[in-house]
Amino acid sequence: MKTLSELFDDNTSGSVALLKQFANILSKNLLKPDSQWQKTLAADLTLAGNRWPHFRVIHHFIKSMKTEAFSSPELTIQWIDGYLATWNNIHHKWADQMQKLLKADSQPIAVHSHSESVKSTLKELHTRGYSFQVLQTLSGPANEGILQARALADSGLNVTLLTDAMSAFAVKNSGLVLLGADGLYPSGFMNKSGSLNICLAADLYKIPVYVLIDSRKISEGFPETETARSTEEIITNAPPNLDVINFYFELVPHTYVSGYITESGLKNSGDLFPAS
Question: At what angle do helices 15-30 and 56-66 cross, to 10 degrees?
């Protein structure tokens, strides 16, 4: 199991996967003798909230936990286990919706980044007997798309890995685009950079785009301002007159989304934000 600092340095896992690991670390730490366990827990929750400002599922977990008044580490662990169990099998509901969208000719599905939601849903569809090719982008600069490609291929799916420069090719040769999201707002959905390019290509080629989302990720507010990440991920020893920009996340307007696949069915932005 990773330490908390190691988890904070993870730039390749999706928000749901990070939440599961974070919750497990908290439970493990709560088993250690600590008379100040409540203060330690509160500090860890604050650190996580600051480290992952865009990840709505983690903030939902933190907010939910802070509303509880735990009297012992044991009861806290029970609550954590119950929270994870509540959301663990949501991919079954997503797969139910995806079955209605998949065509009989099993056209390829284009995917991006490394999303636990996308990965678990595609695996579930494969388990149910659906056959389709997955067109997976590399998803630079961390290249976490490799991790998703390996996981899907190891599960028996037919996967093709492409560079981000070929994302339009992937979209053009797919039957639909399936993306995850780190947050959903009245102005659009937040996801890994490169998602907007994929959606623009889908709009050009008239390919439907579906986004997997659960209610924890829906916010009536505004997305957190994105901060630039390390330039060393792109180039080392850059000369003084070479500027480098490295943003991990971007907002994609609702207009490019054919539908949001939620735990309660297929929705559009008007269903989710009727007042906007």
Answer: 30
